[in-house]
Amino acid sequence: MEVVIASSSVGDAGIGCWDLHTGAEQLRHKSCASTARGLTSVGHRFLASSQLRDPSATSGSVFYWSWDRPQVEVKSFPTEPILPLAANSEGTYIVGGGVSGEIYLWEVPTGKLLRKWHAHYRGVTCLVFSDDDSLIVSGSEDGSVRVWSLFMIFDDMRRQEATHLYEHSFTGHALKVTDVVIGYGGSNAIIVSASEDRTCKVWSLSKGILLRNIVFPSMIYAIALDPGEHVFYAGSRDGKIYVAALNAESSSNDAYGLYIIGSLADHSKAVTCLAYSNSLNLLVSGSEDGMVRVSDPKSGNVVRMFRHSKGPINNVQIVRKQLGFNPRIVVNPQGSSRRHESALPPPLEKYTNSNDDDSDFRTVVTLHGASYGPLESPRISSNAMNEQIEELQRQSSSYAAEMELEGLKVDCKRSMQMVERWKQMYENLHQFCVDELLDINQAEPTKAGFT
Amino acid sequence: MAAYGNFGNMYDISLKPRLLATLLREHVPDDSRPFSDPSELASVAATLRVHKLLSESVEDSTDKKLVESWKKAVDAWVDRLLLLVSSDVPDKCWAGVCLLGITCQDCSSHRFLASYSSWYQKLHAHVQAPGVSKFVRVASIASLSDLFTRLGQFPNVKKDGISFSGKLIQPFLNLLDEDGSEALWDGGTSMLCTIICYFPSAIHRHYDSVESAIASKIMSGKCSTCLLKKLAHCLSILPQLKGDEETWSLLMRKILLLINSHLNDAFQCLEEETKSTKIVNLLVPPGKDPPTPLGCRNSSDKAAVEATKRPKRLLTSSVSAFILCGCEMLTNPYPVQVNIPVKAVLALIERVLTVDGSVSQSLLPFVTATQQESLCSELPMFHSDALDLLIGLTKGMRSQMLPHAAYIVRLIMRYFKNCSLPELRVKLYSIIRTLLMSMGVGIAKFLTQEVINNVFIDLNPDHQNDVAFPITLSRANEVSYPNRKKRKHASAARSLEDKNETGFGEAPKNHLVVPASVKIAALEALEVLLTVGGALRSDSWRKNVDTLLISVAADSVHDGWNIEENSICMPNELISMMEKLQLAALRALLASLLSQSHVRPANIARGLELFQRGRQETGTMVAEFCAHALLALEVLIHPRALPLEDYSPATTDSFGGFSRRFAENVHSSGQPIVAFSQRTELALPDSYDDELHSKWLQNQEKPDTPLDEQVKKAKYSKESGDSSRAISTVKEHDYSLDKSTTEKSKTSPPEVDTNDMEMEDRNPNIVKSPKHGESTRKVQEHPQQEPVLIPCIATASKCAERDTKTDPSSSGAVDHENREDGLEGNVVVTPGDGISASGEMVMLGTLDSGKGKEIIVNPDDESSVDVFPDIIDVEPDSDEE
Question: Structurally, how many domains does chain A consist of?
């Protein structure tokens, strides 16, 4: 089931959840005052969101919700307030960006804080994983966009040798980066970043250069890529969603400026977040007026509207919900009751574990493998039969010999019986003849003498 | 028809009862008839399967008579089998048991449910009764396995299944324990696997005894490799009985400890003692007792086992089996999350891989040469197993391997430098592939240099003088490849042949020839590298790799595509190996052509030619792949940016499609969407939505708008007006189209055919137009037009000539194709302008030639690399030859 999830900075609204096909509202998860870009689904299994806290709080907080319960199930408190939050597609890692510019990387199944590194000079504002989950792209308040390779992050030796950890550092934006997206194509992907300086910039991952700079009439708060990367959509502060050209042609006399080929669905207030549904080809946008609008990018019409809250929405996501996430299909009944409540992983830890001697006892992995059943049941008996037939034909193996021996034994037994029978018959006949002869002799001696 | 008992055809249901009766009458033994030829049974089984004689599934169940007759036939069949099973003649009994097993699988569910328990009793009698021939016993076990498999598919009879299978477990464990024959053990193992899969609760309380029985069987050293594999599989699925985390982890730890302790014996005096204890420490939490060793039921008889088994070392094959079991545990799905002792596994792998059989100076006095020799003979096996375990671990951990990726990469690279056994190199390449695939772009950057160095070592020998290789390793010099002069022009095939020739003068050196399997693995690794990270920091290494790949691909097909034809005397394996090599080379070549992002691939022309030729080898894997490659490259040649609009149905009917689209445009004209289709070619039904087409239309205006290299994606003219201009003058339209076709013929002579096809598809009305044929004929009738058309092609084919000069075999063909393509291009175009006569065509041709020249001297072309492949920039092609 494909659902839209939305959260706002106002705590009492919680996380709204709507079925994109039918428009029906699902269970609303309670008490979530999320930060911008701070809502994510972890491997489609459960929801995680970093929380806005009052400025005096020194620690941050990240909450988990499972799909089927409204209340917060797991609470973690990282060392500092976390702004953006992202998970890889498998749901094994969560990264969070701190207000100080640190990026934290946790392993989800154990909650271990695996790595923490100073990524930006000021707060991290957005974080995304690349399509193969091997890179992280982060944007910051200082206007820089950086690309990190997880491999490098984990390699202590290379870290010490290298002058910098990042793969690319793009420093084109003058003001805070508000959103970053990365497209398809592995090493040939493009990165699009939006900023409060009213520009969006398109970067090349492979070359590490700026490909295109697009100046908008207003600040851009959110971007979403067309799956074909023909255009991208930019949600702006003036309530418009601009359509900007990537592969599409654009002409210099466009109404809004170079490369901007149109605009969609006027919101009354600023558009703060965007998401694109690949299966239905719909664009979902959240606005400061508390509404989630679903529009058809082809016609530009709004197809659905969901009311979320009075306060501003700051996250929308499209998630393919895995209903009944419960991988604990325990075969025996004993284990099931004990396992049931621990459907969600443990909370995220505050500190990295310096002595990693014991860490080996906590590497929790879900084994996937090929879980489909056999298409055809194995034909054990016919296989065995064929093997045996072969052996019989070779007539060399001990079985074959044994089998033959058994057969011969039976034959022999039967022959013996036959012999016995014949013998018996012969005996009988003999006796009969003798008796007959004797009788005849006694009765008609003359006749016998005659014959 | 029915009167004579005839039936419709071979699909007729009424055939089946008859056929079954005949089989029963003539081929299945009975009491009186002796059973002579066992192979008859196989043909009976095959007939049963093919015609589904036992299924009793009648689609049209109204024909009561038919249903009844089939039922009767199957009844008779089953009765006969039961009779045979109870026969005291072993071969008849055996036949009955075998056929009953097949019946268990193939009969209708109704019949199965009605009679499974009686069948079970019959078969079960043979399993346990004393005096039964082993042959019958093996067959009974196999048939019982099938019975349980079938039973497992009916949830409502689960109880019976559990109670039946529960009775069998103890006998089977005894069977594994006692001295029997391989076939019996094999059957017993399959049976255990079946029960574990379908009736886990039956075997649940026997868990420990099953585990120890299987483990001690593996350790006994009396089993064949095949049986060992089966046993390992059985052991690996055993934890699923309980399905909890502890069971899995415990078994894993037990296996690792067992392997580790065996390595202690094997590597005695060859390494420091600390390594072993380190692994044990990783596996056993401090302050806890180590688990009971595998193969012991409880700790009390541990000591006894220790005493008896200690002196006897485990056989290497048993260790392999345990490692295989570990691999399967890591890669099979498991219902709950598990705790994989990653560090211990990695330490174990490293421990094995660092031992190379050399003895350190300090330990030299303690090791005899014999000891060293025996170890060295087994080491490759150990290494291979360790690499298997690493592959399994990488597969099982997926993304969670990342924290350990750097460690693995370092380990692998260190090992790669010294590894020269082909089997091990193949495995190393396969690990690299797995790593690259699972960790993507992020790891590619760091692996690139190492992979390339090694690939060049394995692929280069014939081409050393062509390219400057970035080899810095000393090994490159150590491995001297023999017969270099002789094989300068030899193909991979020859080198294979060389390998097989032994006993000649150079034979002693021949083992240094890189075997095809290693080449294939190297090519596959390179393919993945290019796929994942082909565009990353590519300037430094791409050129050499591309050159290498094109020459390897060309070489692999040098001897002709049709391997079967010109190598009748070659053994079969060699042929399939060559095919694999060809395939691997072509796959890597495709990846190299496609992954290039910033410049035009230098070898595209030669690559296309290779694929084109390969496609003609109908019926081979190579041909299939070449067709795929051509499809993929077509997108490279005609890049398209597809807007989000519905258009697919319109392609089929020209007028309907047109009108629908027209309406849609009108409808949406008030919406912002118009922005998408500003260049609405309403008057041009044949050019809807086709980016390529419109690009070409706009192309002629291109020189007016200088392009920014960096923003190359927007390389098309921004004047929406120009398309309308193109529309207004039909002639101009043709003109541009014409140009486009000539462009194509220039850049990629062989590809043009398909393009033209594509165009025709897009212009259905043109294809249908009777004028098409007419104009074609006209062209054919006026061969004097050809000289007029030549200029536009001649200039274009200059670059091709360079190619053809060097490749004399195909020069004629290419040239010829060029001309034809040019002609065809014009033919397609002419109908567009309605009543065009040949005269106009001549004019078009001349116009064209001028345009073509202009394009070639146009300096702006460099910036339009992406619009259509650059024509001038063809040098790389020529200087590599």
Answer: 2
User: Which among A113, A329, A330, A365 is the top mutation candidate for probing chain B, defined by the most B β-carbons within 10 Å of its own β-carbon?
Assistant: A365
User: Tens digits of per-residue pLDDT, B52-73?
Assistant: 899 888 777 677 888 888 999 9
**Whether A251 contacts chain B with CB within 8 A:** yes
Q: What CATH number corresponds to the domain at position A25?
A: 2.130.10.10
Is residue A306 domain-resident? yes
Per-residue pLDDT band for B440 (boundaries 50, 70, 90) equals confident
User: How large is the average pLDDT for residues B281-304?
Assistant: 71
DSSP string, B174-240: HHHHS---HHHHHHHHHHHHHHHHH-HHHHGGGHHHHHHHHHHHHHHT-S-HHHHHHHHHHHHHGGG
Q: Which residues of chain A have pLDDT under 70?
A: 252-254, 265, 322-342, 353-362, 369-377, 395-400, 444-451
Q: Is the pLDDT of residue B872 over 80?
A: no
Q: How many C-beta atoms surround the C-beta of residue A207 within 10 A? A: 18
Which among A259, A363, A389 has CB closest to B42? A389
A378 located within any domain: no
Residue A408, SS3 per DSSP: helix
pLDDT at residue B298, as a whole number: 55
The pLDDT value recorded for residue B641 is 73
Whole-prediction pTM value?
0.76
CA distance A258 to chain B (A): 10
Query: Cα(B144)–Cα(B150) distance, rounded to whole angstroms?
Result: 10
Local confidence band at B79 (pLDDT 50, 70, 90 cut-offs)? very high
Give residues 225 to 254 of B whose Cβ lies within 8 Å of A. 240-244
Q: Is B403 in contact with A154 (Cβ distance < 8 A)?
A: yes
> Which residue(s) pair with A106 in the sheet?
A94, A113
The complex's ipTM works out to: 0.85
Question: Does B39 sit within 8 Å of A393, measured CB to CB?
Answer: yes
Categorize the per-residue pLDDT at B803 as very low, low, confident or very high, splitting at 50, 70 and 90. Answer: very low
Dist. CA B850–CA B702, nearest whole Å: 17
Q: Is residue A9 part of a domain?
A: yes
Mean pLDDT (chain B) is 71
Place of tokens 């029997």: B180
Q: Is A31 helix (H, G, I), strand (E, B) or coil?
A: coil
Across the interface, do A402 and B398 touch by the CB < 8 Å criterion? no
- Would you say residue A197 lies in a domain? yes
Rg (CA), chain A: 39
**Among A296, A324, A352, where does a domain finish?**
A324
Those of residues 76-105 in A touching chain B at CB distance below 8 A are 88, 90, 92-93
Judged by CB atoms closer than 8 Å, whether chains meet at B710 and A212 is answered as: yes
Quick one: pLDDT at residue B779? 42
Chain B residues touching A150 at Cβ < 8 A: 402, 439, 442
Shared domain check, A313 and A399: no
Contacts of A226 in chain B (CB under 8 A): 644
Q: What's the pLDDT at A82? A: 94
The residue with greater pLDDT, B536 or B687, is B536
Q: What is the DSSP letter of A246?
A: S
B398 contacts in A (CB within 8 Å)?
90, 92, 365, 368
The residue of chain B nearest to residue A372, with distances taken between CA atoms, is B333
Q: For residues A242 and A94, state if they share a domain.
A: yes
Domain boundaries, chain B: 243-407, 419-637, 664-879
Of the residues A305, A324, A343, the one at which a domain ends: A324
What does the pLDDT look like over A243-299, one tens digit per residue? 998 888 777 666 788 888 888 867 778 999 999 998 888 999 999 999 999 999 888
Whether A315 and A444 map to the same domain: the answer is no
Q: Which residue of B has its CA nearest to A378?
A: B146
| Structural domain containing residue A222 | 2-324
Residues 6+ apart with CB under 8 A from B677: B643, B645, B665
Burial bucket for residue B500 (CB in 10 Å: 0-12, 13-18, 19+): exposed
Q: Could you tell me if A320 and A438 lie in one domain?
A: no
